[in-house]
Specification:
The protein is α+β, with helices and mostly antiparallel strands. It has a domain of about 325 residues. Helix content is about 40%, strand content about 25%. The strands form six sheets. Strands 1, 3, 8, 9, 13, 14, 15, 16 and 17 form a nine-stranded antiparallel sheet that branches. Strands 2-18-19 form a three-stranded antiparallel sheet. Strands 10-11-12 form a three-stranded antiparallel sheet, with no helix packed on it. Keywords: Membrane, Transmembrane, Transmembrane helix.
């Protein structure tokens, strides 16, 4: 109980003194209350609000920058360091996220505690006080009779707890792919100008100069073998022009970003380098951790369909094999040995007569494989005739129809070059440069592959039998469809793939031969004989990337906590600004010693009769308020003994203890 001389009171006035009351009390009171509200917003409320606003500006500002730019990569040096120290990067990012989340939670807790202390200058139930203190400490409040406090406390507990994961999600560097446009041009194999130059003989060295292509001959058969292996489901890599291709070249020349040294590829042409096909849109090439790129390029292939046929000099196409035996053939210093001379030939029409016949020198075992070509009417395709003998006679005589085509390809450049056909393309003139070069090279390379006892291409086809455990019948059955009788097999898809792979490789070689500097053309392929190409250069690095709109969900927990903090501060200050003594002692409701001291200084010593649940629940609705008792500081008192009175009603010259927030009723 307070002494009477310290109890505040309202001055008694008569009803006819209303004008005097408004003039002397109410107007000054309103001015003092406005001044009090402004002054109370200064200090800790401003710092708490400013702290949360800074945190939100950092979070949403960073998110906005990443969203606007799409990705924010680390510098090359930082990315390399981060890739080598992933655990440290995770540690630092989590540590920073924890500090930011902890600071946000601290501001929230501080705002709630100060709001409780302010609100206690008006009556507050012990139930509300207990729940508010629990929420300020971010703990779950259990109350069986009222779902409001458990729900609010659980909501705060969850949001405050997942702030760290939200900040960590936002701040931890992830894999970033920087895309840079590529553009350029390459030789157009369907160019009419190129065809006219071929007719005038200007391309002779690249198309018919066998000695020119000696350094690239080995790749011809390997390209076919890789394609046939892939047909049976085996992984196949092909090395061509210093690059590694997955299965086939697709008829492209690799889109290198720098000049390619080609002096060893075509030694008799005088070629020096091949200019780059593609160029980056930016001046500098990003380094990052790794790079790859893809291009849309022109390819060249052939639709090939093969079937087994028994050919004679009476069939169409016809096939005749002339044979002569030489008992003592003398070759350099190898001595004398028997040789069988063979000449497979056909009377099918062809513009270049050396394509429909060939020479073979073998041992008497006659292990040979020969390829002839012709162009029957209406000259829209080539006809290939594959004749075999000796150890290769398990494969019947084969006739193939070949239709050259220009295609459009998507080419991915990484550890290997992967070619994917986008469009079928249109059939090309079979006497165009690429078509003639493909046929001439295939017939020539099989001729070169023929030895006295074996043929290099035949050896490769023999090895394909390993996919059928060496069984010729099973091999033929696998070529078409497992389970079909061998006698009904009339097609040869594996040979189709073989010759298609060779066709695509020869087209790549022709592009290289015609694209180099100081050879057919002084500065590479002329602009009027090129086609445009484009693509994307991708740099893999580390940084921050805007994956989708769901990224903003990582910031929502902290945003809710920030809004709740600001709302609590503003509501407390606006509603209770006039209730706070200008010189009040600091009171922390989360400090047990402060609570004990306030309860002891006030009149709550006989409030609780015990610690059991029933006694405590019986007093939960008891309302208390916080007063400043002279000589004792803050004290809890029963609110029913006091009636709130705004302190600014009293003249400011009164002592603090006489301007308390309530008076005895």
């Amino acid at each position: 109980m307070l002494p009477n001389d310290s109890i505040p009171f309202l001055p008694q006035r008569k009803p006819d003194d209303a004008d005097s009351l408004e003039k002397d009390v109410l107007r000054p009171q309103a001015r003092r209350r406005t001044q009090s509200l402004g002054s109370k917003l200064m200090g800790w409320p401003a710092l708490v609000v400013l702290g949360q606003l800074v945190l939100q500006a950092l979070g949403w500002g960073f998110f906005g920058v990443v969203k606007a730019r799409g990705e924010v990569p680390l510098s090359d040096a930082a990315a390399i360091w981060a890739s080598k120290n992933t655990h440290l990067v995770t540690l630092f990012a989590t540590l920073i996220a924890t500090l930011l989340a902890s600071f946000s939670s601290f501001l929230f807790s501080y705002a709630v505690r100060r709001s409780i202390a302010i609100s206690l200058y008006r009556p507050m139930s012990l139930e509300t006080l207990r729940a508010s203190v629990g929420i300020s400490m971010r703990s779950i409040v259990f109350h069986r009779r009222d779902w409001k406090w458990p729900t609010v406390s659980l909501f705060v507990f969850v949001l405050a707890g997942i702030q760290t994961s939200g900040w960590s999600t936002l701040l931890t560097p992830v894999g970033v792919v920087i895309s840079t446009p590529l553009s350029g041009s390459e030789l157009d194999l369907s160019s009419p100008i190129l065809g006219n130059m071929d007719l005038s003989g200007e391309l002779y060295q690249c198309i018919f100069g066998d000695e020119t292509l000696s350094s690239l001959n080995a790749g011809q058969t390997e390209s076919g073998y890789a394609a046939a292996n892939a047909y049976f489901g085996y992984p196949s890599l092909l090395t061509a022009m210093d690059q590694t291709f997955n299965v086939s070249t697709g008829g492209i020349f690799p889109a290198m970003l720098e000049h390619v040294n080609a002096t060893g590829w075509f030694p008799t042409t005088g070629m020096t380098t091949i200019p780059p096909i593609a160029q980056l849109a930016s001046q500098s090439r990003p380094v990052g951790l790794s790079t790859n790129y893809s291009m849309i390029q022109q390819g060249f292939t052939a639709d090939i369909s093969c079937s087994f046929q028994n050919l004679t000099d009476k069939t169409t196409p016809d096939l005749e094999i002339l044979t002569d035996h030489v008992a003592n053939w003398t070759y350099l210093d190898a001595g004398d040995f028997p040789v069988t001379y063979m000449q497979p030939q056909s009377n099918c029409p062809v513009r270049y007569q050396n394509l429909n016949w060939t020479n073979i020198y073998t041992s008497p075992a006659q292990n040979y494989l020969a390829l002839l070509a012709c162009t029957p009417e209406p000259e829209d395709s080539f006809t290939l005739i594959i004749a075999v003998g000796g150890v290769y006679d398990w494969l019947p005589t084969t006739v193939c129809k070949m239709i050259p085509k220009v295609t459009t390809l998507t080419v991915d450049y990484g550890a290997s070059i992967n070619v994917v056909q986008v469009t079928e393309g249109a059939a090309q003139d079979i006497y165009g440069p690429a078509s003639v070069f493909a046929i001439h090279t295939m017939t020539n390379i099989i001729f070169i592959s023929q030895g006295r006892n074996t043929n290099g291409v035949g050896i490769q086809w023999e090895s394909l039998k390993s996919h059928a455990n060496g069984n010729e019948t099973q091999m033929l059955r696998m070529i078409v469809n497992i389970g079909r009788p061998a006698a009904s097999i009339t097609e040869s898809p594996s040979q189709e793939q073989y010759f298609q792979g060779m066709t695509e490789y020869t087209s790549s070689v022709l592009r290289a031969c015609l694209s180099g500097k100081n050879a057919t053309f002084p500065d590479g392929a002329p602009p009027n004989m090129t086609t445009l190409t484009h693509g994307t250069f991708r740099t893999q690095t580390l940084g921050w990337v805007y994956a989708s709109g769901t990224t903003r969900w990582a910031l929502l927990p902290g945003t809710f906590i920030a809004f709740a903090t600001i709302a609590i501060v503003l509501l407390a200050v606006v509603r209770h600004a006039g209730d706070i003594p200008e010189e009040s002692d600091p009171f922390d409701v989360s400090n047990p010693l402060h609570l004990i001291a306030a309860a002891a200084a006030g009149g709550l010593n006989n409030t609780f009769l015990g610690m059991d649940d029933e006694e405590i629940k019986a007093q939960e609705r008891l309302s208390v308020l916080l007063m400043s008792i002279p000589g004792r500081g803050p004290a809890f008192v029963r609110s029913e003994e006091y009636r709130p009175v705004p302190p600014d009603v009293f003249p400011p010259e009164l002592p603090l203890h006489t301007r308390a927030s309530s008076y005895l009723t």
